[in-house]
């Protein structure tokens, strides 16, 4: 895991100028690679490639980047890992290739020379963001792995192309127009992340997963990127060639493939461990790691003083049963709150997934002992783990049978009372109807159902389930919805509704929220996070497996559970899904109230957010008439981001000091 950055512009910059540009850009992301750095420039072409290295494989100078191929044709900078580099090396050696060291970077270059870029990346098993300059063709190619595990941002404006692992690298570049993309901002407020290919800035984009962007002329408009792999194609091919075996056959097939994926990701020349929450996904990864290891695997968990957010006891039980070398750290709410002032710097594109806080804290804990940590990300999206897949499909299918007029009347009735009023009614009826009184968050669920009923289409209904704000356009000056963000669900009518939901999440929520969160949180402490469940071979097999292997008896991840049960008793893992979060509503109404209020009510006439609407929603929340803490957290995180990245750092720290805990 490392950081890369570079520039391509025909501006008559000399070598010293290009060196200086690349040095500033990589200096902004030194946290991604504290072990080594390097720069390569070609002033005649206006190209500079910069790199920061976190040494994982081949710790010697032979792994230094930028690296040039044996013939001198290709110069590469590479963030990530190609896990099957050893088998690729054997193939290349049989063809006469000779290698100087033992890094996967050398294998990438030799593969490009032997097979070409497009065919080579199809052979790679791994996570990677690659920038490669072709000296012969005088062109720059930017490449992102199939699932979007590693980031690649690209900026293009006024004849200058810059790129990097994080936006802050480009912000430190030769020039950067900070005009906000208002459509991207609107999408962010809906989903709490910015869906690719947009970024928060108008002239920057995120390279989509599984794509290659080749640039020959920085003065011309950016060409369209080309896909070498896509989740959509994997889904269609998998559903067209469904697995025909029985339960035991399917379990054996996935178990073998996951075991191989885990073993490949246990290759490292530095200390390695795993993040363990005690849930199905991380427990499965740790169980397979321990089965493949000759010593106790190092595992890491954090616990909180709030019981409803604390999974430490579950993780401890799993670790004890598997015999791992387990480290557990209990944190207070104050420990978690102390992270908040750093979030805007860590996430240089707004991201308001509240699990970013515990994710950072567990990465920080792990980094004290290891440099690489495996995680369980991806299991929900591949194997139907989210409740919204099961209950959402049931609700959407049922409501679609209702006449539109009936849906609208019902929606109006459901939202005629505030969530607090619905909850008060529930409490008043508890003595008469004890069963109804046990329903948690009744008012919130009724309002969610009302929003779903108001939607006119299947994609609109699923969008409503995902939306922090149902009408984010009302919050943004000149805001408009990105119709492409909903296209995945509507463009795959041949798939079942649950499969369409899962595909939509694999193409957007997974790379743009979950994986972005893990990348920034882990890289902030120079920890490499690896995600074996998102091996593309596992993804392709998951699409070949009929639904009965994912959802059975009303529960998701059936097949993952069967694999885990080989190592852990069901009683240790079969419980209600908790998630990895924090008590947002309590924080916003309590210790963060003054800080958040000051942020939200600042700059009411800055031409970005509609100040009156923001003030109204904040007042409703404080008065108890709104429970939309997630939506307000999205606004708070945007305002913190705006203050950090659209003003100087000193202005930010003086205007909005850290919240007092």
Give the SSE layout:
Blueprint (H helix, E strand, L loop, with lengths): L1 E7 L6 H13 L8 E7 L4 E7 L13 E2 L5 E9 L2 H10 L9 H12 L1 H7 L2 E9 L4 E6 L8 E5 L2 E5 L2 H5 L10 H10 L12 E3 L4 E5 L10 E2 L3 H10 L6 H18 L7 E4 L4 H13 L5 E7 L7 H11 L2 E7 L1 H5 L2 H7 L9 H12 L4 E3 L4 H5 L3 H13 L4 H11 L4 H11 L4 H4 L4 H13 L3 H9 L20 H4 L6 H27 L4 E3 L5 H9 L13 H8 L4 H4 L10 H6 L3 H8 L10 H13 L5 H17 L3 H7 L6
Parallel strand pairs: 13-14, 13-16, 14-15, 16-17
Antiparallel strand pairs: 1-3, 1-9, 2-3, 4-5, 5-6, 6-7, 7-11, 8-9, 8-10, 11-12
Helix pairs in contact: 2-3, 3-4, 7-23, 8-9, 8-23, 8-24, 9-24, 12-29, 13-22, 15-22, 16-19, 17-19, 19-20, 27-29, 29-30
**Which band does the percent of strand residues land in?**
5-15%
Number of helices: 30
Gross morphology is: globular
List the strand order in the largest sheet.
2-3-1-9-8-10
Q: Mean of the pLDDT scores?
A: 91
Number-wise, the strands total 17
Q: Termini, distance in Å? A: 34 Å
Low-confidence stretches: 649-656
As a percent range, the share of helical residues equals 40-55%
Specify the biggest β-sheet.
6 strands, antiparallel
Using the CA coordinates, give the radius of gyration: 25 Å
Structural class: alpha+beta
Give a brief outline of the structure.
This protein is an alpha+beta fold and 661 residues long.
Q: In words, what does this structure look like?
A:
Helix 8 (247-264) packs across helix 24, helix 12 packs across helix 29 and helix 19 (442-454) runs antiparallel to helix 20 (458-466). A six-stranded antiparallel β-sheet has the order 2-3-1-9-8-10. The protein has a six-stranded antiparallel β-sheet with strand order 4-5-6-7-11-12, with helices on one face. Strand 4 (67-68) and strand 5 (74-82) form a beta hairpin. The model is unreliable at 649-656 (pLDDT under 50). With 661 residues, it is an alpha+beta fold. Helix content is 46%, strand content 14%. The longest helix has 27 residues, at 497-523.
